[in-house]
Amino acid sequence: MKAYVIHENPDWYPPFAAAFEAEGVDHEPWLLGAGVLDLDSEPPPGVFWSRMSASAHTRGHALAKDHTRSVLNWLEAHGRRVVNGRRVLELEMSKVDQLTALRAAGIEVPRTLAVVGRDDLLAAAATLPAPFIAKHNQGGKGLGVALFESVDAFADHLDDPGHQPPVDGITLLQEYLKAAEPQITRVEIVDGEVVYALTADTARGGFELCPADACAVDGGPLAAGLFALRKDFDHPVLGQYLDFARRHRIEVAGFEFIETADGRLVTYDVNTNTNYNPEVEAAAPRSGPRQVARLLKRLITEEEGS
Q1: Neighbour-count burial of 270, counting CB atoms closer than 10 A to its CB (0-12 exposed, 13-18 middle, 19+ buried)
Q2: Given a cut of 90, is residue 221 above it in pLDDT?
Q3: Can you give the pTM of this predicted structure?
Q4: Which of 14, 107, 142, 213 might form a disulfide with 102, Cβ 3.0–4.6 angstroms?
């Protein structure tokens, strides 16, 4: 029995492959985005880890999201053990879904307007104090995130020939959160435990803060020096994140928050296809990919014994 990893970007796979091999986990990647799914067939025995990315369409894999929906439905209908299953995929693909679920759990999130289509964007933006943030509902890597000092500046942005509309037609308009320090914090969770917290330097990295070295392949910033281990971070929000993950059956994720100049701790993202930064991994007491490998190894053992 082996672990099957559902994803769409081979550049992100090597750190996990190395962790699986170090932990003795037989593994096979399933690259989705094209192909045939025989609904009369039965999935192979094994444990399946879904780490489909909300930004798959930016790498030419526009069909990967719906392909993954179909595959996860098929796996779960056959009773296969899926890590980060069908419900988690929907959280990954929609920041509206994330923010409403976080708010319902009592976790503070940014003031947000979700605007469907383009017609109401400027009128909605005028209801927020300037400056404000615009971003894509289905994002990843800071996709479509920009700060606007005025509605007029936003209007110019929308009229620019290079403007990229959101792939699902939903734009989020959010309050601008002024950070006490130019950084965000990301809390990595695997299998019901906090692995570590890291910081990302927003003064140099801006909004595009994918921690993996492979993000440079995708046209993102070089990861070197932007990320650092946040040692000894302890806050009640950690318990809230763990409870949220349990409630939504999220077994691998990174939760991102900003500590604001006015003393708020505001969570703005749940990344369920989390990548790990090699510099932080080298300094951390535990490895994210190795914890994932241990999770999959344990689940394979449980499946073999059932």
Answers
A1: buried
A2: no
A3: 0.92
A4: 107
